[in-house]
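Below: protein 1.
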Amino acid sequence: MTSALLPTYARYQLAFERGEGAWLISTTGERYLDFGGGIAVASLGYNHPHLVEALTEQAKKLWHTSNLFQIPGGETLARRLTEATFADYVFFTNSGAEALELTIKMARKWNSANGAPDRFHMITFEGAFHGRTLATIAAGGNAKYLDGFGPKTPGFDQVPFGDLGAVKAAIGPQTGAILVEPIQGEGGIRVGSTDFIRGLRALCDEHKLLLCFDEVQCGMGRAGKLFAYELYGVAPDILASAKGIGGGFPLGAVLCTAEAGKGMGLGAHGTTYGGNPLAMACGNAVLDVLLEPGFLDGVARKGLLLRQSLAGLQAEHPDVVAEIRGEGLMQGLRLRVPNADFAAAARAEKLIVIPAADNVVRILPPLIVSDDEIREAVRRLGAACGHFEITATQDSKQGAST
């Protein structure tokens, strides 16, 4: 039967009906070890009792009132996020793209409030992914996503990721902010160096620019800290979050300093569903777990175990695995074989990994993954590598026989 869904995805012939921890169970009853996490969304895995209870209890009470009224859960979550981070204010959205839209608007509004409305340009980086709206595809600059949607939204000047010299050269009289993923996700798990990220902070301070971080994929515990900026010893002025913050329930957030948010007064921005009671219950439940003493230290430790295990995998299969990248439980394998084919080989081993740019597959397990599940996933990755080595051996034999 032909699908009635708009054909914007080439979906795999695979569907899931339930999940348990780091595992997904298909509609045919097969168990898959999920090291994609819904693309870094399932931060607490599947069917986490605390998250289920929080959502269920709130669903029995109230789903929606609109932001014309106070939403106590939102007040609580915003306060907890500001107490745990650099931020003074939080605005809740439904998605990462919406969070990035507000980030862009907030940066432009700040410059306008400071008497410089012409400083609406942002420096962004090659390989970035910030969403699928007209502004965020312009910020990302990927020609594939821009094609056919008319003139590119102005105000985004792209430079190579990691190149401070290029950033300095791009700063001009219209520059008002820098937008960066400290760890690029879709771009291939490319980790910004400490010198690079600190250099961006210094440039922003020198030129009176806002430093904006997109932590939609790398934040909320993924890199072993609540947010990845903590790895670098500097803080942004604005930070966009989503994906793991709701543990699977649609939720995004923009965190900002009081200075960065000073232009966002009454009526400057709004949302119908953002910060709704269901989302706030989920966000608070996720934060309950992430802020438990020792939890994030455990993520960092498991990230080290994963990294070391992947290093062993690379040593065993150098003809398949070219490089390991990442931080915490956000790791990537750059491959010598097509990444889509490798992801398919992993699925054949009942393991889910996610392709990215630069011929990388992303490894993004739930933060509650166990040591044994990490070892089992790496074993299955090794079996996936074996698919290509067997093929190469067969091709070699056929070549010799002719």
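Below: protein 2.
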Amino acid sequence: MVLYKSGRKWEEVVFIGEYWATIDDKGRVVIPSRLRKVLLSQGVKNVYITRGLEGCLFVFSESVWNIQTEKLKSLSFTRGDPRAFTRLFFSGAFQSKIDRQGRIVLPQNLGLYAGLKETIVIIGAGDRLEIWSEDNWNSYSKKALESYGKIAETLLET
């Protein structure tokens, strides 16, 4: 969750939902209006897109990107796993402006990484958006739903 200053109070922003979209021939995708309204209401004009996990792309607002950057910068570069992760995370990163039609550009290298074709799925994942190929999302969500209850028991134990 991310807190944004709005007037005199802090507002919590959480991205939710599952949306199907298409990529045009120039690699652009329209951010669904509900998600776009959340971004624009917080003054977000640019997003950061990078390699996600399980074959998706992560899309961060600038403020969340800065938070993630600080966390990753604190990892030891002398250890192999943090070094490999930060290399892949940052080398795949791309900044995209949200245009007047609410579109962002998905670079070809990231589209290839995520196996994106014409139809994609954009999901709200709390403090970020995720972009999935339709096939990968259907496969992942089907498998994850099978263990949803067990995961909840593990994570939500009191």
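DSSP finds six helices and ten strands in the chain.
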